[in-house]
Amino acid sequence: MNRLREHIEAITPLTDEEFEYIKTFFTIKKVRKNQFLIHEGDEVKYEFLTLDGIYKVFYIDENGKEHILQFAKKNWWMTDYIGFFKQQNATMFVECLKDGEVVSLTLQGREKLASELHKMDHFFRVKLTNGYIALQQRIILLLSSTPQQRYEDFVRLYPDLISEIPKKYVAEYLGVSRETLSRLYSNNK
User: Fold this and answer.
1) Which of 34, 59, 29 is closest to 46 using CA atoms?
2) Residues 131 and 85 sit within 8 Å (Cβ to Cβ)
3) The pairing of beta strand 77-78 with beta strand 66-72
4) Helix locations, 65-117, DSSP H
5) pLDDT tens digits for 65-75?
6) How far apart are CA 54 and CA 99, in angstroms?
7) Where are any strands of DSSP class E within 6-129?
8) Does residue 25 surpass a pLDDT of 90?
9) Which residues form the Cyclic nucleotide-binding domain (predicted)?
10) Beta strand 93-106 with 36-38: parallel, antiparallel or unpaired?
11) Is 80 exceeded by the pLDDT of residue 187?
């Protein structure tokens, strides 16, 4: 739980008493490669903070095509946010790509922490704001850039992920074919 505390304290300091209370809302879970934390149709009970490992958040369209919305690595939050906040069944999947560990938090726990501790309300607001900004930047990039620009942006933002994630997933995330990704990769060596 020390990593959870470090993660929170990167935004707001905590007393030992505050953290002792906060950690009662979180559950640690080990996750294996290819294990799903959320499967389409599941009740979305948790939001997850990644302590270790790599995960992908994706959905499958009516034609069976996979669309990756997010990769998550250490200190990233993930879930099916529509299902989580609206308390609906999942329309997305969260799958582990590399063995790891997460901590989970329920919506009720999140709401209680935010209402009882101003520091946690501030923490969650900062995290949501940063996530919203990243999502908006990703949408703009997908709508207005070339495959080359998307690839360069991915490498700049996530230099360690390019070597740790199968190329087919990087291609899906960037919205390009595997062949296009191979050309982009070769051109940038």
Assistant:
1) 29
2) no
3) unpaired
4) 81-86, 107-116
5) 999 999 999 99
6) 7
7) 27-31, 36-38, 46-60, 66-72, 77-78, 93-106
8) yes
9) 29-112
10) antiparallel
11) no
* Encoded tokens for 61: 């369209």
Within a 13 Å sphere around the CA of 151, how many CA atoms are in the beta-carbon half? Answer: 18
Instruction: To the nearest 10°, report the CA torsion of 62, 150, 162, 95.
Output: -20
- Please report where in the chains the tokens 């095509």 appear, as a residue: 65
- The CATH T-level fold of domain 2-107 is Jelly Rolls (2.60.120)
- The pair of structure tokens assigned to 140 is 């703009």
* Nearest Cα to Cα of residue 47 among 96, 100, 114, 108: 108
Contact partners, residue 172, CB within 8 Å, separation at least 6:
58, 66, 67, 68
Q: What is the mean pLDDT of residues 13-38?
A: 97
Q: What is the pairing mode between strands 27-31 and 36-38? A: unpaired
pLDDT digits (tens, 9 = 90+) for 88-136: 999 999 999 999 999 999 999 999 999 999 999 999 999 999 999 999 9
